[in-house]
Structure formats: C-alpha cells, structure tokens
C-alpha cells in the first residue's frame, strides 16, 4: 500500500494541494473540535485521579480521528464508537457528561442511541462492527439515506468480528465506513505482533473493499478522505476501509503501565506530530485563527469542562430494582420472583 495521505505536515505547512484542502471555515470548526476533545480528555483524566470516574481510555493524540469522524456525518447517519471514542461521541453533539456515565460505573450508556444516532460504546473489541453493518444494511433495504461510521482500533482488526463485518458489508454493499485508528498497540501488544500484513488497509483487498491510508494526525487529510468515503457509501457504492496512522500518547487506561511495553523515546517521537498543534500552526500561519478567536475557543472549552466537573460531582441514588429492568421485554417468572424477594428484603431493612 502507498504511504498515508497527508496534506499538512507537523509544522502546519501544506505539503499537497491535490486533493485541495477543506475550506478554512471547515478547518477552523475542526480545530474547535480538537480543542474541546483535548480539554475533555484532560478533564476526564483528572476525574479519574480524583476517584470521581472509574476508568478513562484517553484519546490524547488521536483527537483528529475523533473529530473528523463526527464532522463528516449527516444528522441521519449513525456513529458506532468504541470505549476510546468519547471525544467522537461528544463531537457528534452528545452531552459529554452523558458520554461519561458508563465510564463512571453506571449500568447504561448515558444517552439515547436512537435519538442521538450513536450506538453505545463497545468495550469488547470489534463486537460493534457487525452491528454497524446490520444498521447500514437495514437502512439500504428500507431505502433510507443513512451512512454508518464504524470506529475501531488496530487490535480490533485481529478479531473475527472485524472480518465478518467487512465480508458482509462488501457482499451486500452496505453503506459503512470502517475507520481503523491504528495507534500501534492493542493495549500492550504492538502491531507487529498482531499482523504480518503490509498495512491494515491491505486487509480490505481480500474482501473487495476499497481501502485508504491516511495520516491520522492530519485533520485536513482525514476530513477529505472520510468525506469521500461517506459520499461513496451514500451513492450506493458500498463500504470503504480507512486506516488512520496515529498514536496513543497516554496510557491505555488509568490501570495501564505503558512503560512495561514501550519506551518514552518512542512516545517523544510522536509528540511533535500532535494533531492539535499541527492544525493550530496552519490556521495561525494562514491568518484564520486570531488570538481573539483562540481565546474564545479556550473559554468555551473551559465552560464545557466545568459542566462535566459539576455533573460528575452529583451523587445519584441507585435504584436496586433496575437490576431487573431491560433484561427481557417481558419479565420471566424467575425475574419477577427475584425482584419481589429483593423488594421484601429492602422493606425489612427500611422498617
């Protein structure tokens, strides 16, 4: 496969003009998304350290993938995220506080998937991909104008669900865009120990799925590639596999010790490729991002972070009866019996 497509380099300079860059206002809006995503990552990390959030898988360094994935979708489209895609869900318009509910330890995903057209975050690797293809296939059968953006990481490409999803999508021309955020590690397993393929994009060849490699830290290139992939799906031409070359700067989660499997020197090599700093440099150099506008964006991001802090600080009394809700559409006799037993025990304690 060819080298990942790039339009803007680490210094913010334009290195290719074919295809043309997105319009300046599109890039400025994308930069706003990067600022918000970075602040959300930082705020969530702080909440974990304070014990107010159970776990957080940061997307620091991968925010361009998150922002671009949401930016290219229409209201009628669907986003299928993983556990690391909090920033993508927030960029889709879901309240960040609602996105963090599950990671705070609640039993539900925190938002209405149907109303937001965002599927619940998938913690098991690749299990959401066949679901994404199913939604796309159903929309196609019903004649709906719907495209599905299915996110996953490099580790997910080692799962059977990934291959089944690609095969089904290709055979039935499902309107799905598979965005693989190749951040080089499946927790602690490096890419070289996962696949001997020339690239992850090469995996699309065997299924007849067009594949593209793109610099996952170049927001402009991501927007161009994903926009075309979505348009192709909307035209009824089937799925596209996009491999975004990026890097996870921070630990897998707060429970991870990355020093056991990678060096700090490796991380330092990727820090200058930061997607936020790259886009900022480009917008400042072209005069699109003024100091006043940057101050406005920073203030708005701080307001969002304060909203998240305040919301995560509120205690909600758990309802034990929810243990039996949504297990079956019609509760079984055993569930009713167990619910009654728990209710009786709780009445005794309160009496």
From TrEMBL:
The Dehydrogenase E1 component domain, residue ranges: 37-303
GO biological process terms, semicolon-separated: branched-chain amino acid catabolic process
GO MF term (any one): oxidoreductase activity, acting on the aldehyde or oxo group of donors, disulfide as acceptor
Essential cofactor(s): thiamine diphosphate
Keywords (A to Z) from UniProt: Oxidoreductase, Pyruvate, Thiamine pyrophosphate
Source domain of life: Bacteria
InterPro entries: Alpha-ketoacid_DH_E1_comp, DH_E1, PdhA/BkdA, THDP-binding
Protein name listed in UniProt: Pyruvate dehydrogenase E1 component alpha subunit
Source species of the chain: Pseudonocardia hierapolitana
Taxonomic classification: Bacteria, Bacillati, Actinomycetota, Actinomycetes, Pseudonocardiales
């Amino acid at each position: 496969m060819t080298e990942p497509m790039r339009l803007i380099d680490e210094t913010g300079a334009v290195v290719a003009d074919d295809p043309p860059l997105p319009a300046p206002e599109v890039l400025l809006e994308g930069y706003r998304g990067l600022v918000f995503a970075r602040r959300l990552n930082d705020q969530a990390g702080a909440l974990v350290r304070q014990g107010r959030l159970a776990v957080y898988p940061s997307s620091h360094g991968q925010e361009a993938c998150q922002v671009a994935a949401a930016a290219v979708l229409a209201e009628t489209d669907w986003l299928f995220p993983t556990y690391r895609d909090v920033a993508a869900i927030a960029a889709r318009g879901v309240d960040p506080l609602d996105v963090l509910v599950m990671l705070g330890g609640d039993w539900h995903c925190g938002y209405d998937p149907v109303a937001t057209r965002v599927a619940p975050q998938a913690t098991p690797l690749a299990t959401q991909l066949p679901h994404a293809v199913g939604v796309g296939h159903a929309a196609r059968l019903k004649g709906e104008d719907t495209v599905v953006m299915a996110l996953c990481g490099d580790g997910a490409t080692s799962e059977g669900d990934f291959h089944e999803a690609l095969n089904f999508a290709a055979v039935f021309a499902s309107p799905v865009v598979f965005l693989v955020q190749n951040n080089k590690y499946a927790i602690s397993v490096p890419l070289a120990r996962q696949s001997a393929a020339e690239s992850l994009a090469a995996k699309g060849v065997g299924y007849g799925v067009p594949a593209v490699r793109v610099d996952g830290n170049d927001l402009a290139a991501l927007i161009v590639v994903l926009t075309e992939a979505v348009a192709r799906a909307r035209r009824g031409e089937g799925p596209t596999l996009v491999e975004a070359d990026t890097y996870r700067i921070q630990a897998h989660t707060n429970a991870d010790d990355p020093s056991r499997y990678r060096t700090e020197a490796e991380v330092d090599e990727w820090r200058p490729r930061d997607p936020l700093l790259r886009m900022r440099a480009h917008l400042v150099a072209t005069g699109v991002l003024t100091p006043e506008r940057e101050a406005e964006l920073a203030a708005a991001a701080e307001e969002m972070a304060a909203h998240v802090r305040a919301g995560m600080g509120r205690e909600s009394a758990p309802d034990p009866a929810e243990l039996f809700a949504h297990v079956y559409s019609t509760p079984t006799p055993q569930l009713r019996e167990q619910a009654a037993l728990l209710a009786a025990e709780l009445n005794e304690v309160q009496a």
